[in-house]
Amino acid sequence: MTDAAGDAPDGARVLIVDDVAMNRELLAKRVTRLGHTVALAENGETALARLHAESFDLVLLDVTMPVLDGYEVLTRLKADPERAHIPVIMISAVDQTESIARCIELGADDFLPKPFSPVLLKARVGASLAKKRLHDRERLYAASLERELELGRNIQSSFLPLTLPAPPGYELAARFRAARQVSGDFYDAFCPPGRPEVVLVLGDVCGKGVPAALFMAVLRSLVRALADEWALGSATGGSQAELLERTAQLINHQIAETHGATNMFATLFLAVLDPASGAIVYLNAGHDPPVLLDAAGGVARLDPGGPAVGLLPGLEFRVGRAALAPGGLLVGFTDGVSESRSAAGELYGETRLLARLAAGAGGAETALASVVADLDAFALGAEQADDITMLAVCRSAT
Length: 398
Fold this sequence. Notes:
CATH architecture of the largest domain: 4-Layer Sandwich
CATH class of the largest domain: Alpha Beta
Structural class: alpha/beta
Order of helices and strands: EHEHEHEHEHEEEHHHEEEEEEHHHE
Shape: elongated
Number of domains: 2
C-alpha cells in the first residue's frame, strides 16, 4: 500500500513501521480513517531514513523485525535531540510485561498489542498526538521566549560602554560574563561632558535573570542621567565628594521611594579618577571593596561607606579617597568573581583573587585576562552561578 492522506483539518502525519505487509496495510487503513496522513516503512533502517528526511508527528513501531528491531530504532530515535520529541507507540504480538517495560524504559510513549483493536488504536493514537501537540506548543513558547531573551541580552549589552576612556598614561579594561541570558551586573566608565576626570561605575543588583536585568537598566540610566550634573557641579564649584554623595542619595531615594514595592536593591561603586594626579574620590555603597595595588606590592581595599542603595529611604553615604600611583592597578569586581565555585563546590574566594592580582604583571587587560583564565581553570565543569564583572584601571609607571 502506498502513502495515504487523510482529509481531517487537524490530521497528523504518522509513520507505520512493520515488516509484515498485511499489518502495515491494516494499520494504514485504520489510521487513515482517523483522519491522519500515513507513511510506511518495512524495516527499521527504512524507518530511520524516513524520519531523518521527513517530518512526522507519531510513529507506530513494531517490536520484532529483521535487520533492525524496534528496540534499536527506538533507542536511536530517542538519542537524536532533533527527533526525540516524536511520540512512539510500540506494536507487538508479544504481550509480555517485560517487553512493555523495556519499551517504556527506552522512551516509548505507549504500547499496542496485536491483533489491533480499533477502539484501543484510536484512543492511544489520540492520546499520543495530544501529548505531541502540547509538546509542540511548549517548544514554540520556549523558542519565542529564547528569542525575546536574546533580544533583551542584546539590548542590555548596548548599555555597556562600547569603548573605554583612554587618558594619557592610563589603561582601562573590563570583563563581563552573564550567568544567564541577561544580567543584574553592569559597569561603566566615561568622562563627564567637558571634564577631564574619568567616572568609574560598578553595580550589582540583587537577584538574577530578567527582574535583575530590568532593575539594572533603571540603575544604569540613573547614573548616566546624573553625568551632566557632575559636570555642572564641578564647573560651579561643587566638590567631587559632594557630587558623589548627592548621586548616591538621589539613586537611593529613587529606588526606595519609587520602586520600594519590588524589594530590589543594588550594591554600587562610584569613583572619580583625576588622570593628572591619580587622585581617586569614591563612594562604595555596600559593594565588594575594589583592590588597589601599588608598584611595590602593597594592597589596599576601598571599603564601603554605606549600605546598598534602595534598602531604605534617607540613607547616608560616606565618601573615601585614595590615589592610583605610577605603576598602580585598581580592580573592581562583583561577587560573582569571588563566589565562583569549582565542580567540587570549593569557593574561589577573595584570597585567591588577591594572590592572582598581586602575582600578575602588566596592565589592566593583562590582569583581567589572568583572573579570567584562573577562574575558568578553577570552575571547570561547574555551572556559573552568578554574573561575573570586573573593571580595571592601570597607571603607567612613567
